[in-house]
Write a structure and sequence with these properties.
The chain has about 375 residues and is α/β, with parallel strands linked by helices. It contains 15 helices and 16 strands. It folds into 2 domains: about 260 residues, Queuine tRNA-ribosyltransferase-like (TIM Barrel, Alpha-Beta Barrel), CATH 3.20.20.105; about 100 residues, no CATH class. The protein is about 40% helix and about 20% strand. The strands form 4 sheets. It has an 8-stranded parallel β-barrel, surrounded by 6 helices. Strands 1-2-3 form a 3-stranded antiparallel β-sheet. Strands 7-8-9 form a 3-stranded antiparallel β-sheet. The longest helix is centred in the C-terminal third of the chain and has 27 residues.
């Protein structure tokens, strides 16, 4: 089966559709939970699916180091290894080129770096990134790129973007023709409209099955990110999926969808669940706070997750403060459910041509704040 994207409805710049893959459909706008090391932390794969997730993200850098892509391949590939038979997108390792800058050396060929685990030396090139992702067996493969943290000088951003475009061409050549698998290009260029346009033109000349907006959510702030998305998404092909990498908070996601983005990923819902931060229709709740200790009410009375159906705020406060494992499980399950319900709400609103009204209701609910203490 070939990879395809069916754009079904628009409301302003917001879009809804279906990405078809050999392992199942991905409803867009889509949020991808992050399974960095072949697991969404504190969750069973079947429970992640119950939240409504159609696709997961796996991390090339971390899986390359441990347990190694070669071992995962011998075990039947990443889907079988982690018991997730639906689509998987793998990043290229490019983000770690930035985030682990103190441990790496960057050249035209690629990146050499020391493992954060044991200090051993490794190299990732566009060709090696494609090989790792082939061994993992991911359905959507990302080309290898490099992006500077923002803010940065324009000259540095331009040099980095053009290196990424040369790496994109090498990634495309190394990827070859793999039936049932898709390769996405990654637009770079910081916050500069002309550099973003140059990047988008270079990527389209190479030719990819989807396109990502990279190099955002790296320190520039929401206002600057939205300002960039106002033009960056429009520079990419309208008939292909558009993926905003590493985003984000609920209002980041809603703002990105309003600007034409189809796919997103972020560690925030799972990481926040482990640290006691919970997302609800009324905004963020910190379950560690003493105000919840005697509260028999659920986190969110409208939520369908097990944490809200079966447990009180008092219990969730107790198990978090007691550092019980069930706290990470229940709060992560809730956050992932909230994120998937957020995406489902946007998909329905776009299809019904009421996305503007939906956005107003979303922001009004969050502005109310959490329910009053008992």
């Amino acid at each position: 089966m070939t990879f395809s994207f069916d754009l079904q409805a628009r409301d302003g710049k917001a879009r809804t559709g279906v990405i078809s893959t050999r392992r199942g459909d991905i409803r867009t706008p889509a949020f991808m939970p992050v399974g960095t090391a072949a697991t969404v932390k504190a969750m069973m794969p079947e429970n992640v699916r119950e939240t409504g997730a159609d696709i997961l993200l796996g991390n090339t850098y971390h899986l390359m180091l441990r347990p190694t892509a070669e071992r995962i391949n011998r075990m039947g590939g990443l889907h079988k290894f982690m018991n997730w038979e639906r689509p998987i997108l793998t990043d290229s390792g490019g983000f770690q080129v930035m985030s682990l800058a103190a441990l790496r050396k960057l050249t035209e060929r690629g990146v050499t770096f020391k493992s954060h685990i044991d200090g051993s030396k490794h190299e990732i090139t566009p060709e090696r990134s494609m090989e790792i992702q082939r061994l993992l067996g991911s359905d959507i493969v990302m080309c290898f790129d490099e992006c500077p943290a923002l803010p940065a000088d324009r000259a540095i951003i331009a040099e980095s973007m053009r290196l990424s475009m040369r790496w994109a061409a090498r990634s495309r050549a190394a990827f070859g023709d793999r039936a049932g698998h898709a390769l996405f290009g990654i637009q770079q260029g910081g916050l500069e409209q002309d550099l973003r346009a140059e990047s988008a033109e270079a990527l389209q000349a190479i030719g990819f099955q989807g396109y990502a907006v990279g190099g955002l959510a790296v320190g520039e702030g929401q206002e600057a990110m939205f300002g960039c998305l106002d033009f960056a998404a429009d520079q990419l092909p309208a008939d292909k999926p558009r993926y905003l990498m590493g985003v984000g908070k609920p209002d980041d996601i809603v703002g990105a969808v309003a600007r034409g983005i189809d796919m997103m990923d972020c560690v925030l819902p799972s990481r926040s669940g482990r640290t006691g931060q919970v997302f609800t229709r009324r905004g963020v709740v910190n379950i560690k706070n003493a105000r919840h200790a005697d509260d028999p009410r659920p986190l969110d009375e409208a939520c369908r997750c097990p944490a809200c159906r079966s447990y009180s705020r008092a219990y969730l406060h107790h198990v978090f403060r007691s550092q019980e494992i069930i706290s990470s499980m229940l709060l992560t399950w809730h956050n992932l459910t909230y994120y998937q319900d957020l995406m489902a709400g946007m998909r329905a609103a776009i299809a019904d041509q009421r996305f503007g009204t939906w956005q107003e209701e979303f922001h009004a609910g969050r502005a109310q704040g959490d329910i009053e203490p008992i």
